[in-house]
Design brief:
Blueprint: E1 2-6, E2 9-17, H1 40-45, H2 56-63, E3 70-74, H3 80-87, E4 94-99, H4 102-114, E5 121-125, E6 138-143, H5 153-163, E7 164-175
Parallel strand pairs: 3-4, 3-6, 4-5, 6-7
Antiparallel strand pairs: 1-2, 2-7
Bound molecules: S-adenosylmethionine.
């Protein structure tokens, strides 16, 4: 597990080497309405300060992000974390951001274009519990502040593992303070 602290937020990352899933969560609660505590604007403004520059290379290492890889970022929202991951590809590879909200996906596409990352990024509508991809499609799968809001985060992790190639890394970042399901 890796942790960074900046701007008063503590972000934790669980990174699972393929086939080893260690998890400690309470499941079966209601889906968490994240927009009650976080506005859509927060997804962009807050994220700018979340990761200190010196932490980012370590983050890429934990996430298994390298040039030439294909990565899926599940629950991508407006795509701020997807863009961070895309920069780690250093011009070669692809990040597919997946979200169930079409409005956020439209914003994500526009932001990627504004930041000159369109070549490296695609966005797709889909459900984290039933990802619209075949088995072993991606070199790595990420998510950022998604698991903590899902009613059944384990189901999502199993689905991420399904679409990740053998030897790939399934990772999940979450805000400890705002994730009701994590113990
Ligand atoms: C707290 S936001 C995080 C967005 C982004 N990862 C970030 O860190 O800025 C959670 C996102 O998960 C999406 N989401 C929630 N449930 C989902 C599901 N079942 N399938 C796909 N996306 C989902 C929401 O639409 C929202 O964009």
């Amino acid at each position: 597990m890796a942790a960074s602290q900046s701007g008063g937020l503590i972000e934790s990352f669980l990174c699972f080497p393929h086939n080893i899933v260690m998890i400690s969560m309470v499941i079966g609660k209601d889906e968490f309405d994240w927009q009650r505590v976080q506005s859509v604007e927060d997804l962009e403004l807050g994220r700018e300060y979340l990761f200190r520059p010196e932490f980012v290379p370590l983050l890429y290492s934990y996430l298994g992000v390298r040039p030439g890889l294909t990565v899926a970022d599940i629950g991508c929202g407006t795509g701020s974390f997807s863009r961070l991951v895309a920069r780690g590809l250093r011009g070669k590879g692809k990040v597919i951001g997946v979200d169930s909200d079409q409005t956020l996906l439209r914003i994500a596409g526009n932001r990627a274009e504004q930041e000159g990352l369109s070549e490296l990024l695609e966005f797709k509508c889909g459900d984290a519990y039933s990802l619209p991809f075949g088995d072993e499609t991606f070199d790595a799968t990420t998510s950022h502040t998604l698991l903590g809001i899902l009613r059944d985060p384990t189901k999502c992790i199993i689905e991420k593992k399904r679409v990740t190639k053998q030897g790939g890394i399934v990772s999940a970042g979450f805000d400890k303070k705002k994730s009701p399901h994590f113990s």
